[in-house]
Design brief:
Structural class: mainly alpha
Radius of gyration: 19 Å
CATH architecture: 2-Layer Sandwich
Largest sheet: none
Protein name: Serpin domain-containing protein
Number of strands: 0
Shape: extended
Keywords: Cytoplasm, Protease inhibitor, Serine protease inhibitor
GO molecular function: serine-type endopeptidase inhibitor activity
Distance between the termini: 52 Å
Main location: cytoplasm
Oligomer: single chain
GO cellular component, one term: cytoplasm
Length: 100
């Protein structure tokens, strides 16, 4: 999993560096993980020069197939946690009391 983290970190830092050059004093609001995930999906349908360019920019240290595999696993875990965590909080927290 560290290869995926390293690849995402390298991509994120390069993305932020590139975006900050355009407006050095401005704020940057972007999700590098979402961007690299979208590029991974586009890569699966790309061919030729386009596929090579996406792979060069996004997957400098790992294969696109490995990235897609790990990203899919992370998405499944995140989705499951979104449904489980509220139930845990509800079960183990104090009940809300309405003020009158």
């Amino acid at each position: 999993m560290s290869a995926v983290s390293n690849s995402n970190t390298a991509f994120a830092l390069e993305l932020f560096r590139t975006l900050s050059q355009t407006n050095p004093a401005g704020n940057i609001f972007v999700s590098p993980l979402s961007t690299s995930s979208a590029l991974a999906m586009v890569y699966l349908g790309a061919k030729g020069d386009t596929a090579a360019q996406i792979a060069q920019v996004t997957f400098s240290t790992i294969s696109p197939a490995l990235f897609n595999n790990r990203a899919s696993q992370a998405l499944v875990i995140t989705t499951e946690l979104m449904f489980i965590l509220p139930r845990i909080v509800q079960r183990y927290s104090s009940p809300f009391v309405e003020e009158r």
